[in-house]
Amino acid sequence: MKSVNAVSPHKRGRVVSFEDGLKLVKLRGEAMQAAADAAKSAMVSIIGLDSEKVQQLCDAANQEVDKADKVQIANYLCPNCRKSFVQIQGNYAVSGGLKGIEVVEAKAKSFKVRLAVAAAFHTSFMEPAVSRLEAALAETEIRSPRIPVISNVDAQPHADPDTIKKILARQVIAGIFKRVDKSATVENISA
Prior knowledge:
Malonyl_transacylase_ACP-bd; alpha+beta; Alpha-Beta Plaits; two-stranded antiparallel ribbon; 7 helices; globular; Ac_transferase_dom_sf; four-stranded antiparallel β-sheet; Acyl_Trfase/lysoPLipase; 2 domains
């Protein structure tokens, strides 16, 4: 499903044809699954802590594990969430090696929920998928969008086809909505 979400805005913006969009979704999913199968990794959602505390959890976990099990914030899911009328700190997805995720879970105590996903998406664990995507995108006609398509990597609209190809390939290893300034994003849509 994540592959559909990454490619469908580009179809809507007429950046890719429907057929090419389907091919990219299929390839992206297969490439990410192959990367997931290559290493034991996971994701955990941290709820109710601010981004600084979540980063501190990651830093503390990374001091206790080998390089292959490092963790990082992968998704800024809801930095300033509201539940009913109560403000809570946030919801962040942390991705990384299985041992690192287990350390984060132990340190986060009641602030965590293990995500039912196959791997540590949006981290270097997905690096093997990038080259497959780059090769496919090199063979795919990418056009300038007819409407602004905001990247979920940098919250910016991109019109250059070569830049769009690079972003589409790198999305699998980039954190999602990393500290997006919502007002700037709205301004970008209007630009």
